[in-house]
Amino acid sequence: MKLEDIRREYLQDGLSEDMLDASPIKQFEKWLEQAVATNLPDPTAMVVATVDEHGQPSQRIVLLKHLDENGFVFFTNTGSRKAQELKGNNKISLHFPWHHMERQVIVYGEAKPLPTTAVAKYFLSRPKESQLAAWASQQSRPVSSRKVLMETFAKMKQKFSEGEIPLPDFWGGYCVEPTKIEFWQGGAHRLHDRFMYQRQADGSWQFGRLNP
């Protein structure tokens, strides 16, 4: 297998200034709705990139759980690597790779912790098994085997067998307040269409075309 020979042309669509909404949030919602309509698996999946105290980036995939004019929301264990890195440096990047539509969206911004009320509201809306998994997992920390993890899950299931499962004190969420958002549409001969929105000092947005 020759990796350098694996390629294809991007011919599905183009992107021009007159096709874009003045608001990048509304433009993102439009693209997300189109991704959902095509039955794309996990259309809300996004790569979250953070940086540790040594400048080492790390990435992982999480699910977008809410979006409004304030930003992009996700939830996580506050003891996880991503949460610990955000505590030291709240600069963050999100990447939505909608390959089958030949589209990408990249969000740059700052992650702000959500209030406990918002975290609890979402936590209680999750399936019971997901709530139990949150209690069972010390996210990002070593575990000797899957058997040990499943035994912990079973213990949590027994512990919270009656009534509502409470919100763990080590579980939270973030709103990523965007400063820049890029929309990428694949083009023939690698002449892709790229537009970058940038938030201005007064809160408004301006956008312009980038070279591919």
Structural category? alpha+beta
- How do the SSEs run, as a string of H and E? HEEEEHEEHHHEEE
Largest sheet: number of strands, sense, barrel closure: 9 strands, antiparallel
Count of discrete domains: 1
Distance between the termini: 28 Å
Quote the average pLDDT: 96
CATH class division: Mainly Beta
Percentage of helical residues?
25-40%
Low-pLDDT stretches are: none
**Radius of gyration, CA atoms, in whole angstroms:** 20 Å
CATH-defined fold name:
Pnp Oxidase, Chain A
Any idea what the shape is?
globular
- The portion of residues forming beta strands comes to 25-35%
Counting DSSP H or I runs of 4 or more residues, the number of helices is 5
Q: Going by CATH, what is the homologous superfamily?
A: Electron Transport, Fmn-binding Protein, Chain A
Q: How many beta strands in the DSSP annotation?
A: 9
In the CATH hierarchy, the architecture is Roll
